[in-house]
Amino acid sequence: MHEEYFFKKYYGFVMGIGRTYAKSEDLAQEITQDTFLKFFDAVGKLEKELSLKPWLRRIAVNTAIDYYRKNRKFIYHVEADEDTPVSVPEQVVDQMNYEELLALLLQLPQDLHLVFTLFEVEGYSHKEVAERLQITESSSRVYLTRAKQKLRHLIHLQSTVYAGR
Fold first, then answer.
1. What number does CATH give the domain 2-74?
2. Given this structure, which CATH class describes domain 90-163?
3. 30, 60, 19: which is closest to 42 by C-alpha?
4. C-alpha angle 99/102/103, rounded to 5°?
């Protein structure tokens, strides 16, 4: 069956996107499954010239955003308790691997995590982030600033833990 082959071929790719946006493995799995359902529902509309992977990526990102919007009313935002700016030496970040960085990203509150990922990882503009998340552009900028501040603090904490070993 063609769908089964396609699913096996692209499962890891889509699941990786789901893991980037979701804070739990279960939610990442749900995003992945919904992405494939949406893909198979719309596959007849796919233009021959269109590349499959970017289209699948867009569906996965949009599905993750849909989950955020649907559950936004249940998410409470905890303000960062770190008021003092923290500087992190660049070599500390360079020494971290992908899993360590992703684990720190997943510690961010959901709204900060999503804005950071859309802006810094996916390359969306603040205007595009605002439209997709149904927030203002200034909120997107504020969330990104807070996300970076919180990440600096988390990286600083992690580097002091490693230094103590």
1. 1.10.1740.10
2. mainly alpha
3. 60
4. 85
Kindly report whether the global pTM for this prediction surpasses the value 0.85. Answer: no
Q: Give the residue from 105, 122, 121, 101 showing the smallest Cα distance to 113.
A: 105
Query: Contact 120/105 with Cβ under 8 angstroms?
Result: no
Rounded CA separation 165/163 (Å): 6
Phi first, then psi: what are they for 155, rounded to 5°? -65, -40
CA distances from 159 to 42, 95, 109, 139, 149 (A): 46, 10, 21, 30, 15
Task: Round to whole Å and give the CA distance between 118 and 146.
Answer: 14
Q: What is the rounded CA–CA span in Å between residue 10 and residue 157?
A: 36
The number of angstroms, rounded, from the C-alpha of 143 to the middle of its chain's C-alpha atoms is 14
> From CA 64, how far away is CA 2, in angstroms rounded?
25
Residues in the chain: 165
Could you read off the pLDDT of 48-65 as tens digits, one per residue? Answer: 656 788 888 899 999 988
* CB 157, CB 82: distance < 8 Å: no
Task: Quick: pLDDT tens for 26-48.
Answer: 989 999 999 988 988 887 776 66
- What is the residue extent of each domain of the chain? 2-74, 90-163
Quick one: tokens of 154? 């988390």
